[in-house]
Design a protein that fits this description.
Chain B: It is a multi-pass membrane protein. The complex is a heterodimer of chains A (about 325) and B (about 350). With about 325 residues, chain A is mainly alpha-helical. Chain A has 13 helices and no strands. Chain A is globular and about 65 Å long. Helix content of chain B is about 70%, strand content about 5%. In chain B, helix 4 packs antiparallel against helix 5, helix 11 crosses helix 12 and helix 12 packs across helix 13. The chains are: A mainly alpha (about 325), B mainly alpha (about 350).
């Protein structure tokens, strides 16, 4: 990693963290934020230490997970429009988690996170298969994802109709939100995301080889089948954990890898670390935007992501010529 | 034997060309495939039969024969009242919505040349839902306001998708991707509107979004029926032949004399109007537009978009789903959208199996 872009990304991330700690229903100065973090007797301690700190940490983890997952998916499908949200993987995780809540009465994170992993894994395999496997075009894969998204969405809605209590919980969680974060969730989600990140970084070099096509990759000593399987495990860990923690988020994993590649070029050994720094920054900014847009109430970060991300996606579509069917 | 074909050639001559038959009567000729006609008629009969079964089910249950008697005016006054005033409108909504969605789906799948390219995946029903949610959450949500909101939202989304996908013409894949992007964004907007609502309104909005035929009457079917009376003949007769050529690709179609962009705009416009008004009548019933054309194509084994069979299959699918939804749990009728949603899952798995057989995965 070159020093100048690394420093710039670090500054951006630090700024996003500071804004996320300082802004909200009550704005705080930098001094107040510092006092709120360190001094249990300060006026802002309850706001900063108990509410905004876990929220910010969760945002960092989830952003990292989705950015890295998006970059890995775009590499393994060789498809510039792959995204864990658009391809239904987050929806699979959330449908499984909602099922766990309603049918098995699993209300704690440590319980339903396993359902979320199962849901994410099943959809990851399904969308790749329905989308046409290795002969998939971007449009086809996106359609397969949209169809799975629609099927899972109508399933979640059916569940919500049967159980009004689930409707009340899921209509907030189902949009994707960081607002309910606490340190317990952060501690539980961190190991899964760390494992997923580690696996993704180990796969960077073989995935680079895979970008040349399976034959060339084999000639270079890569193992395509093993690499793809590993990528699916990594994506499942990252997306399942992120979705179980804060609900399904769309477009985060699509836009940021594009922005990063525009600077670094296609080498995943550079793309993945930058995604791991810059996607959390973007997600925190989106969260702050949601808090500022509807003060003193707030708009969930998932909604900000889908609206802002949707607009950027449409811009991207007009720019990327290579998406021809 | 070279007598010119005129009005005197009364005996229709049947000519066989690649599984299709042509019947000529005077100056007019109709080319058809017997299997396609049989499949279409079978689907139509199934739609009618399921409609009768739907009319017969409910708290006041009636047998097949009693419903037919009431429909033809031979039943008891009570039966006649219940059938004609209360349950027939709902069955008509189901038939019309199913047919409209089947046709719209067939047109879209042919235009974007992809078996998954259906209006509910390309944002139009999400737009309808946005319109309906605005009506429910902010405008009090009378039935008329919800229907108007749904129709307006769907049509506005259609215009937006077309405009955003335009770049010296609208190509199928760009339309698909633009639609999917907009669907995702609108899903976020819809989720936000749900959080703004009171819990009772939210429950109502979720029920609407699922797609339901409960409490639908003549005033729900009227706008859709009027639109179908105009749009369906226009699509079938005006654009049907051009659509078959469009399926071969833009270059081929335009070499064969099709004004590609103009025809495509007309096709998309007609299909969007049908989808939006169907959503206004029954909510965004999922997957009928996706599955009906595919089932029709498999049943007829005919190439081309199979527009008429798709309509019949759509009507049969929706009435059958409604019958299942009413009967599945005796005390707890489901909204029809739940059944069609599950149907979509089955369809996707079937597609998966077909891909596997074709050796693509």
């Amino acid at each position: 990693m070159r020093p100048a872009p690394t420093a710039a990304s670090g500054v951006l991330l630090a700024a996003a963290v500071l804004l996320s700690l300082a802004l909200g229903a009550r704005h705080l100065s930098v001094g107040e934020v510092w006092a709120g973090l360190t001094d249990p007797n300060a006026a802002g301690y309850a706001v900063v230490h108990d509410m905004r700190l876990p929220r910010t940490l969760l945002g960092l983890l989830v952003g990292l997970a989705l950015g890295v997952a998006g970059a890995v998916m775009q590499a393994v499908t060789r498809n510039p429009l792959a995204d864990p949200g658009l391809l239904g993987i987050n929806a699979g995780a959330s449908a499984a988690a909602v099922s766990a809540m309603v049918f098995f009465d699993v209300r704690v994170f440590a319980g339903y996170v396993w359902f979320a992993f199962a849901g994410a894994a099943v959809v990851a395999v399904l969308v790749y298969a329905v989308g046409g496997g290795r002969s998939a075009t971007p449009a086809r894969l996106a359609l397969a994802g949209a169809a799975l998204n629609a099927a899972l969405y109508s399933y979640v809605q059916a569940v919500m109709l049967i159980d009004p209590a689930a409707l009340n919980a899921a209509r907030f969680w189902g949009n994707g939100t960081l607002a309910s974060a606490d340190m317990g969730t952060v501690r539980k989600v961190a190991p899964f995301i760390a494992a997923g990140l580690l696996l993704a970084l180990l796969l960077a070099r073989p995935l680079n080889a895979l970008a040349l096509g399976d034959d060339a990759a084999l000639a270079l000593g890569a193992r395509p089948v093993r690499t793809r399987a590993g990528a699916i495990v990594a994506v499942t860990l990252l997306c399942g954990a992120a979705t179980a923690a804060c609900g399904p988020l769309v477009f985060v994993g699509l836009i940021m890898p594009h922005a990063v590649r525009a600077v670094t070029g296609p080498d995943l050994r550079k793309v993945l670390p930058y995604c791991a720094i810059l996607t959390p920054a973007a997600l925190l900014m989106a969260d702050v935007l949601g808090r500022l847009a509807a003060r003193p109430s707030e708009i969930q970060v998932g909604i900000v992501c889908s609206v802002v991300g949707g607009a950027l996606f449409l811009v991207l579509l007009r720019r990327v010529k290579a998406v021809a069917a | 034997m070279t007598a010119p074909l005129g009005k005197t050639a009364a005996a229709p001559a049947a000519v066989r060309i690649s599984g299709a038959r042509t019947v000529r009567a005077g100056r007019f000729s109709v080319r058809f495939r017997p299997r396609a006609v049989a499949a279409g008629l079978l689907a139509l009969a199934a739609a009618a039969a399921f409609a009768v079964l739907c009319i017969g089910s409910g708290q006041y249950a009636m047998g097949f024969g009693r419903v037919l008697d009431a429909l033809t005016g031979h039943g008891s006054p009570a039966d006649t009242f219940i059938v004609r005033e209360l349950r027939l409108p709902r069955a008509c909504v189901a038939l019309a919505v199913g047919a409209a969605l089947g046709l719209a789906g067939a047109v879209f799948q042919a235009v974007v040349r992809n078996p998954l390219g259906s209006p509910d995946l390309l944002g139009f029903t999400s737009g309808s839902a946005t319109g309906a949610l605005v009506a429910i959450v902010y405008l009090g949500g009378s039935a008329g306001a919800v229907a108007t909101g749904a129709a307006a939202g769907g049509i506005a989304t259609g215009v937006l998708v077309y405009a955003l996908a335009w770049r010296r013409g609208v190509h199928g894949f760009r339309l698909v991707l633009t639609g999917i992007g907009l669907t995702a964004a609108l899903t976020g907007v819809n989720g936000y509107l749900l959080t703004r609502a009171q819990l009772t309104d939210a429950a109502r909005a979720v029920l609407w979004q699922t797609g339901s035929l409960d409490g639908r009457g003549w005033d729900n079917v009227a706008p859709l029926a009027v639109a179908m009376a105009v749009v369906v003949p226009a699509l079938l007769l005006g654009c049907g032949p051009a659509l078959r050529m469009l399926e071969m690709g833009d270059d081929t179609a335009s070499a064969l004399g099709v004004r590609v962009e103009r025809v495509r705009l007309a096709l998309i416009g007609g299909a969007v109007v049908l989808t939006a008004l169907a959503a206004a009548a029954a909510g965004p019933v999922a997957f009928v537009a996706l599955t009906a054309p595919q089932l029709a194509r498999r049943a007829t084994r005919a190439p081309g978009p199979n527009l008429l069979p798709a309509m019949a299959v759509g009507a049969a699918l929706l009435t059958a789903s409604d019958w299942i939804a009413q009967r599945a749990f005796d005390d707890h009728p489901l909204p029809v959208g739940v059944v069609t949603g599950l149907l979509g899952g089955v369809y996707l798995v079937a597609m998966l199996a077909a891909e596997r057989r074709a050796g693509r995965i």
